[in-house]
């Protein structure tokens, strides 16, 4: 009986140890790979990190897409209709990327503009990612601008 | 008129499922045989009416009855007829109906094949399945009726999302759902056992093939989804740790653990409480997956516009099912627990290590998937958890599992032969090192490629050593029972998958290039010559089609035609063009036009990418093969005997130890 208990104790403590290590590594991995999403207004207000990676969400401003000819580099403006942020991206843009479409870009700030390493647009063209909708709603609430002013960013 | 009949059929099915849930369980409780006997009739009736509803919806798509709102939203006159079938489950309402229909297929199978189970147990199993069907039928009718009318009917419908217009989609959802929903059978067995307060090993044995088949289907569904993402999304990746992918992967991980735990319970009577818990978890994660995909709470490449009411309903149902079953488990599990002691060095221990790693992996995936929701709920901010989190932890957790894997079959139940382990370990490690050297010579330079080669060889050689041992020691004709063959097949699949996943990751060359007609891009050992873009037409799309000539050392290998399709409503869809091969895929997809006939192109050289899916398919085959073993078939006489039999069977134990 004693031997059985001893063995059980060993097994249980090994399991606890393993779970502990797993938990520690999980927390570490989470911290390393978490990115926050900000709207251009929040970036403008200085909430976004200056050097770390983050995600910028919003709508691609109408008439803002500009290609550097002969290269894969594209400039465009992401807006939440209150503030704009210039974004630069080198690579192939997703099929659903177009003016007036909501996007989430991942990257970091560089010389006052956002240097994106990834641009995501969604499968469903009528769909605005909840996060982007929230960010725009939040920007709107902070500015206390009447609802009919939304969409006024189009030129 | 006909769509209303479909709706009526759904309502009748709902009533039947309510009865199927209540009557047999009350019957089993009161020991009332006539009540218990209703279970099968009700299950058949429910199946018939759901099948009628499903058939009517399919018909509505085939004849293009745009007065049905769901049809009008998800198809149009130009949609080719072969895509009208997948259009049935191309959006929320229809895919939910498919979910219920597949649940009914499983229920029907349990009703038909389970007649030899003890009557009360069988009645309870069908009652639990009836409850699940009731929940989903109620969900369908109250929040997402596929037969809702759109009056006046539009002249033409919208369109099936072009991303979904791919042969892969015809198979992907039904197969995936077969897996998801199939875990409901193992779940129903667990709940029935807990309700009855006893668990006989024979019942676990009888539930094993169901778990194996469900897991096999889930493997196939995940493979199909991965293949579809690779070929259709135009990114060339095969796994993105996207919330929706994770939703199908978590039940798969727990299902793999469940298959092994069930084997221990069946053969040794051990780990009973754990097996029951895993059965509950596997199905709960399937439900959670449905919730994540269908509620739109998570931002994902797969998320579609969603109605919050639906999320609330599934969340409520999830709470009832998971909460209720865990409560039942807490109350009853001590009664059914038990088993034989085993030594530290034994097959049970190794299986337990594997189980632990698989469930912890599922838990970390769950954490990473739900973390953004937690962040939002606690108002920490809008967080997303990047793919490296999942990749890092998954690799880490799978390492002990892979290390233990070849030794589990080589060990005895109860107490392993350490000398045998030692000999096998030396051979396996020797062969792995040898493979590493060969890989180095063939060009696998660097840590990751060598890791891929050695880890795959480790698993494959270990599995081969066991197969050879069986061949030498077991009598002819009894060498590889189907159950064991299935195990070997799935373990080989693990090895093949490891090789594919790690080698693709480390040896792939991916380049985005800007090319003008006549220009050539050098990618790895290959030259991709861009010959311009021309217009071409399909049944319901116009496309810009590029021509890319791929050559190696001046010798033309293949001419690829990637497309950029435009569908009637202006949606754009990239179609990658792939030259498949056993050892490498050459992959080209069109990016954007850059003006003056110049185009952005995505050019990939993907070695061993097909091994990933081959590994998944071998695992699927393993699940299916193991399920067909004749020792899982329940004989009437055996079933009666088992009422009193002790929870182990000596013959198999002896055989497995041989």
What would you note in describing this structure?
The complex is a heterodimer of chains A (155) and B (658). Chain A is α+β, with helices and mostly antiparallel strands. Chain A has helices spanning 2-33, 40-44, 130-143, and strands at 34-38, 54-60, 66-67, 73-79, 84-90, 102-110, 113-121. In chain A, helix 2 (40-44) links the parallel strand 1 and strand 2. Chain A starts with a helix and ends in a 12-residue tail after the last helix. Helix content of chain B is 64%, strand content 12%. Chain B contains 20 helices and eleven strands. The longest helix of chain B is centred in the N-terminal third of the chain and has 32 residues, at 201-232. At the A-B interface, helix 1, strand 1 and helix 3 of A face helix 12, strand 1, helix 13, strand 2 and strand 8 of B. Strand 1 (34-38) of chain A pairs antiparallel with strand 1 (383-385) of chain B, so a sheet runs across the interface.
Radius of gyration of chain B: 26 Å
Q: Main sheet of chain A? A: 5 strands, mixed, barrel
Distance between the termini of chain B: 65 Å
User: What is the tally of beta strands of chain B?
Assistant: 11
- Distance from first to last alpha carbon of chain A: 82 Å
Low-confidence regions of chain B: 637-658
Strand proportion of chain A? 25-35%
Overall 3D shape of chain A: elongated
Q: What's the multimeric state?
A: heterodimer
What is the fold's blueprint, element by element?
The complex is a heterodimer of chains A (155) and B (658).
Chain A: H1 2-33, E1 34-38, H2 40-44, E2 54-60, E3 66-67, E4 73-79, E5 84-90, E6 102-110, E7 113-121, H3 130-143
Parallel strand pairs in A: 1-2, 5-7
Antiparallel strand pairs in A: 2-4, 2-6, 3-4, 4-5, 6-7
Chain B: H1 2-30, H2 33-62, H3 69-74, H4 84-88, H5 92-113, H6 119-143, H7 167-196, H8 201-232, H9 243-268, H10 272-295, H11 308-336, H12 347-377, E1 383-385, H13 387-404, H14 407-410, H15 418-442, H16 447-473, H17 482-507, E2 509-515, E3 520-523, E4 526-537, E5 542-552, E6 555-560, E7 563-566, E8 572-575, E9 577-579, E10 584-595, E11 598-607, H18 609-627, H19 636-642, H20 650-657
Antiparallel strand pairs in B: 2-11, 3-4, 4-5, 5-6, 5-7, 7-8, 9-10, 10-11
Helix pairs in contact in B: 1-2, 1-6, 2-5, 2-6, 5-6, 5-7, 6-7, 6-11, 7-8, 7-10, 7-11, 8-9, 8-18, 9-10, 9-12, 10-11, 12-13, 15-16, 16-17, 17-18
